[in-house]
């Protein structure tokens, strides 16, 4: 490893411009993912028969990738709101840990802090807590968040407009959702390195499928996710007892 | 043909937004108590794998494997995307490849 000078704590005072260029550069990889995914999201939404403006509106009001793709399905299925709330809670549960290491004390003022928390995405978290973005000033962090938000918004807007000109007879955009979750699943399996968790999830999925098909319509997610959480909660209890 | 209700769309977006913001704000509100909670940490570690597998399953649960084309376009495209992602580690390329194959299959071949 190359010897490098110790990272100095930078403040807005030392660098009045706050290195806006550096902050924008850090969002380039984010843009490479957000723009195509945003386009896919916008096209999917309009192709599903939802008014096009919900794509850009959703990116402004939610700003949390995968759940917004799922929202399209929820709108089409007319899913009850308690199920929407529950599914968002489970799917976005990981966000509960991001605040623990996000450098919020560098953000000044109420507006900057509130936006910082609102826009605390996987990517913002990743950029500000590891690698070259670890020592950004508060102003730079806000720039990273706003610029990334703009990429996501523009992608969705472009997709929503494209969706209007693509003939209705062209099918298959919804597969983007399956493929996106697949890559996230591969990432998760690589991190957890656990075939047991995959098998447990598949088991919960089979039961969820049967309940969805034969007992209560549109109950797949709530049943299978609850089952999965219940089983891993049981595993936690067992491990705790063993540790005593 | 915009037949889906704006009211329900708004309600869905609002509910998701509120839940997401609540999750993101939680650690600042309860100040570090979450980090000390072993159960929540355990859930945080074990949840993503199952949640993502179940989300993939959710998007293909209505697949009909008993009649032509036996769900093959989805299953074949999904396998392609999986192999591509496993080999290249490039999410965009794999999603793009999977979607392209799927759209060729459902619009052109079948």
Automatic annotation (TrEMBL), chain A:
Signal peptide as annotated in the record: none
The protein's name in its UniProt record: AzlC family ABC transporter permease
Chain positions covered by the region annotation Disordered: 1-20
Subcellular compartments: Cell membrane
Main location as per UniProt: membrane
Keywords: Cell membrane, Membrane, Transmembrane, Transmembrane helix, Transport
Taxonomy, superkingdom: Bacteria
Membrane topology value: Multi-pass membrane protein
UniProtKB/TrEMBL annotation, chain B:
InterPro entries: Brnchd-chn_aa_trnsp_AzlD
Alphabetical UniProt keywords: Membrane, Transmembrane, Transmembrane helix
Spans traversing the lipid bilayer: 7-27, 92-109
Superkingdom to which the source organism belongs: Bacteria
Protein known as: AzlD domain-containing protein
Taxonomic lineage of the native organism: Bacteria, Bacillati, Actinomycetota, Actinomycetes, Kitasatosporales
């Amino acid at each position: 490893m190359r010897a490098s000078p110790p990272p100095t704590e930078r403040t807005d005072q030392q660098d009045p411009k706050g290195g806006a260029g550096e902050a924008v550069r850090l969002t380039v990889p984010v843009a490479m993912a957000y723009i195509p995914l945003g386009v896919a999201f916008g096209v999917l939404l309009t192709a599903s028969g939802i008014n096009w403006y919900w794509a850009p509106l959703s990116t402004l009001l939610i700003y949390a990738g995968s759940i917004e793709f799922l929202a399209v399905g929820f709108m089409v299925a007319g899913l009850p709101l308690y199920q929407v709330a529950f599914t968002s809670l489970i799917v976005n549960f990981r966000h509960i840990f991001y605040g623990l290491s996000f450098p919020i004390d560098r953000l000044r003022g109420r507006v900057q802090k509130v936006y910082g928390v609102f826009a605390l995405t996987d990517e913002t978290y990743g950029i500000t807590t590891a690698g070259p973005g670890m020592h950004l000033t508060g102003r730079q962090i806000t720039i990273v968040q706003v610029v990334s938000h703009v990429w996501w918004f523009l992608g969705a807007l472009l997709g929503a407009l494209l969706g209007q000109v693509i003939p209705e007879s062209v099918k298959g955009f919804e597969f983007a959702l399956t493929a996106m979750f697949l890559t996230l699943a591969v990432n998760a399996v690589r991190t957890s390195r656990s075939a047991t968790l995959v098998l447990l999830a598949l088991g919960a999925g089979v039961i969820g499928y049967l309940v969805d098909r034969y007992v209560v319509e549109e109950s797949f997610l709530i049943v299978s996710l609850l089952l999965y959480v219940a089983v891993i909660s049981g595993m936690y209890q067992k491990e705790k007892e063993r540790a005593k | 043909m915009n037949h889906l209700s704006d009211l329900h769309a708004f309600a869905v977006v609002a509910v998701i937004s509120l839940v997401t913001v609540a999750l993101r704000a939680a650690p600042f509100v309860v100040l570090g108590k979450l980090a000390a909670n072993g159960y929540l940490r355990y859930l945080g570690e074990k949840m993503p794998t199952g949640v993502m597998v179940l989300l993939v399953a959710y998007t293909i649960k209505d697949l009909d494997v008993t009649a032509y084309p036996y769900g093959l376009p989805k299953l074949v495209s999904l396998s392609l995307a999986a192999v591509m992602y496993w080999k290249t580690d490039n999410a965009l390329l794999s999603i793009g490849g999977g979607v392209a194959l799927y759209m060729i299959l459902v619009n052109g071949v079948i």
